[in-house]
Structures are given as structure tokens and as C-alpha cells.
User: Which sequence fits this backbone?
């Protein structure tokens, strides 16, 4: 059972990366529930999301279950520096829960992932446990960093676009509002996700985020990704 859960979460917790594997599929198939659909509300709280957030996650149990996810997401959720798999280390548990339950609900669509994310493959308690473990996880493995010469320009854009209003001055996100940590994330992952959001391909994109980066040239997106990827883990400050 643990091997099945591990395989599931290795796929489910992939937050979206390569066009062939990630949220770009949203642009190829009409999403009746995701961003751009009639009545779409960001974080409308699916019934399963509500249920998982009411559970008490167990970090020790989550660590044991997570062992079987390490083939993709590596030890302690560090992912891969090339951005194929995101850095989950220290991500808010509520954010991880949202991503998984949005996938299960078809809001964040990925037909290749969906069979592995359904209720027959992973329990709500498993989701709560692993999310709790990853939120507390620590690692000395460095993330994939962007071009340091772009950091200053990226910092200026982060300020100009008021990104800190949601993601915090240190890129720490906002656990209460379910805004993700973006500091110390892999540069390639950040760039890919911003491109997905900009193109309307991420099913559970925040409308304000779409508006903020709409029309930005890829050079600006690269600068933002470089700035954020060069920030330290916010918990280390």
C-alpha cells in the first residue's frame, strides 16, 4: 500500500513543470472548473480540501509514507535543480493540500496524473500527513539558482508589481491565505510556472497573478525567477 501511495504522491505533488507533463495540458483540453471557466473562484475550497484541512497531519507518519516519493522528489522534498520537480521543502502544508485536492477535483488538470490522484489511490489522511512532513522538512541541498546578474532587475520587478502583497517581502508566502512560498524555489520551475500562468494554462491560477504578469516579456519573467531562486529559505532568516 505504501508503494502505491508513494507513486501517487510522487505524481500528484508534481506542481507542474515541463509542457509535456504539466499544466500546459489545460490549454489543450477545455477545463470546466479551472481558471477561465464561468464562475471560477480561486480557492473555492473543494469538499476534499475542507476535509483534509480539518485533519491532524502526522509528520512522522508522513515521513515514512514520503519515502516512496523520493524517486522523483528526492530526500526531504528538494526536487531537482533543473526544475523538473519542484522544491517542496518548507512549503506550507495548506498549499500542498490545495494543489493535491485541486488535481483530484479536476480544477488543476493533468490527465496523466489524474488516475494516480483519485480517491482509490490515496487517502485524505495520507495527504495531510505528507503535507505536514514536507512543511517541516529541512535540507542542506541547494536549490537551482538563476543568473545572479538578473537579481537586481528581478528585485525591482518584484517591488513594482507588488508581489510582496501576496508572497511576502521574503518570498515566504502566506499560510493563512494559502499563498505559496516562492523563495529558494528552483529557477527553472519558477520560470515554467509563470509562463503557464501567463498563458492561462494553469487550471488553479489566481486571477490577480494572471493580471500581474500579463504581457511581461520573458526577459522579465527570467529576472523574477532569478531573484526568487536566489533568495534563501525564509525560515533560515
Assistant:
Amino acid at each position: 500500500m505504501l508503494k502505491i501511495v508513494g507513486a501517487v504522491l510522487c505524481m500528484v505533488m508534481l506542481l507542474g513543470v515541463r509542457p509535456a507533463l504539466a499544466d500546459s495540458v489545460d490549454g489543450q483540453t477545455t477545463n470546466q472548473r479551472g481558471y477561465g471557466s464561468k464562475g471560477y473562484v480561486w480557492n473555492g475550497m473543494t469538499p476534499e480540501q475542507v476535509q483534509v484541512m480539518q485533519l491532524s497531519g502526522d509528520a512522522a507518519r508522513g515521513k515514512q509514507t514520503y519515502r516512496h516519493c523520493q524517486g522523483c522528489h528526492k530526500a526531504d522534498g528538494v526536487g531537482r535543480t533543473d526544475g523538473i520537480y519542484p522544491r517542496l521543502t518548507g512549503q506550507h502544508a495548506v498549499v500542498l493540500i490545495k494543489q493535491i485536492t485541486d488535481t483530484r477535483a479536476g480544477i488543476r488538470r493533468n490527465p496523466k496524473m489524474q488516475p494516480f490522484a483519485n480517491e482509490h489511490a490515496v487517502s485524505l489522511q495520507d495527504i495531510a500527513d505528507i503535507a505536514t512532513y514536507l512543511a517541516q522538512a529541512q535540507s542542506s541541498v541547494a536549490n537551482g539558482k538563476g543568473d545572479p546578474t538578473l537579481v537586481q532587475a528581478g528585485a525591482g520587478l518584484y517591488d513594482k508589481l507588488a508581489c510582496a502583497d501576496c508572497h511576502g517581502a521574503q518570498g515566504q508566502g502566506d499560510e493563512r491565505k494559502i499563498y505559496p512560498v516562492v523563495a529558494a524555489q528552483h529557477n527553472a520551475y519558477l520560470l515554467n510556472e509563470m509562463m503557464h500562468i501567463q498563458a492561462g494554462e494553469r487550471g488553479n491560477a489566481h486571477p490577480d497573478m494572471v493580471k500581474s504578469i500579463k504581457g511581461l516579456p520573458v526577459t522579465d519573467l527570467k529576472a523574477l525567477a532569478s531573484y526568487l531562486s536566489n533568495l534563501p529559505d525564509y525560515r533560515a532568516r
User: Anything to note?
Assistant: Confidence is low (pLDDT under 50) at residues 1-29.
